Amino acid sequence: MKSLSSFALLAAFGLAVSGCSNSSDPGSTGATDGGAGEATISADAPKVAYVTNGIASFWDIAEKGAMDAGKEFDANVTVKMPANGVEDQKRMCQDLLAQGIKGIAISPIDPDNQGDLMDEIASHTNLITHDSDAPASKRLCYIGMDNYSAGRMCGQLVKEAMPEGGTVIILVGRLGQENAKLRRQGVIDELLDRSEDRTRYDDPNGGEIKGDKYTILDTRTDGFDFGKCKDNAQDAIAKYEDLGCMVGLFAYNPPLILEAVREAGKVGKIKIVSFDEDERSLQGIKDGSIYGTTVQNPYEYGHKSVEILAALARGNKSVIPEGGVINIPARNIRNDNVEEFWAELKRLTAKVAPAAVQEEAASEEAAATSEEAETTETTESKATAKE
Secondary structure of the chain: what % helix, strand, coil (to 5)? Predict the structure, then answer.
């Protein structure tokens, strides 16, 4: 009976995730009609797209938000995750335009050099940005946090982790992205106790950046190459004997930093401060190997993007706010609030099985428990009789 119950639960999970079907593009998923108990997307629902800047756990959460919004606002959603940088992102967007997509939400990888692509999208369909902005483009609005302020919040975590001061290494995927530039600068400005200035930019190739208490030794990029990220961390640990803290600005950076620190036997000696909500980072905060993390709300990025695109596709422009920015604030997560945050994250991203299958599984589990109880009672009765 237990094996049947397990099978029912597995079947439930399979039905639940069938709302995201794989396409021929390895970086693409698309919404389809829901299963039993789920909202059904109408045949004439507008087709919209959510385009990320890479592949990472962060984007899995955003994808769930986008897909949930597709069901809620009756939109057929395609999610594209470029694995190979700018050209991959460009190809995906042009493919979407050729399909007559009714709106694209994009996290531009290199907005300073993607002007032509952004103009092309905006001239054919509704264009919004999320996570990382392209303020000089013709996008209708930006959905996300203030990355400079979030960087300063991350810098506050470094100060808490190393109140006496010390040396810091920053690891990040790319610095061509607007969000990465602003986060990094926010961290640096906070550690050096500078005034707020979103136009300031310290050259990452300019050597050490020294303050009264903190010194930023280096900023290392990896181009979304996970192996290179870990290599960067290992090299920094070997190069700087007095390294005090490592800061990872993209979701995948902190878990790989932690791997390198563990392998070097320096957990606790080298502090780790994180960005985003990778489960390995949250577990590290729980067990004390990572001090804390500055989190965004990728679920809401995906959800709000699709809500806006669906409304625009139906001619409703009132959803665009004055100023063109929908701010979704960042939060700092530490040991004292990580469990509450993680529970909420799991609730938002859970793959819930259809109710009928859940009930069947529960019924089988109850029957199995009853059968075990009867067997145990019978065995005990026989043993008593023998005595």
Answer: 50, 20, 35
Domain 147-295, what fold?
A: Rossmann fold (3.40.50)
- Considering only CA atoms, which of 45, 38, 3 is closest in space to residue 17? 38
Nearest CA to 104 out of 136, 129, 137, 70 is that of 129
| pTM for this prediction | 0.77
Q: How far is CA 288 from the centre of its chain?
A: 22
Indicate the class that CATH gives domain 2-145+298-328: alpha beta
The answer to whether 2-145+298-328 and 147-295 have equal CATH topology is yes
Q: Show me where the domains of the chain are located.
A: 2-145+298-328, 147-295
Q: What tens digit of pLDDT does each residue of 282-321 get?
A: 999 999 999 999 999 999 999 999 999 999 999 999 999 9
DSSP string spanning 228-239? Answer: HHHHHHHHHHHH
Instruction: For the chain, report the end-to-end CA distance as a whole number of angstroms.
Output: 31
Residue that the structure tokens 């008593």 belong to: 384
Q: Which helix (H) or strand (E) holds 246?
A: strand 243-248
What strands, in cross-sheet order, belong to the sheet with 166-172? Answer: 209-210, 214-221, 166-172, 243-248, 271-275, 292-295, 331-333
Pairwise CA distance, residues 114 & 135, whole Å: 12
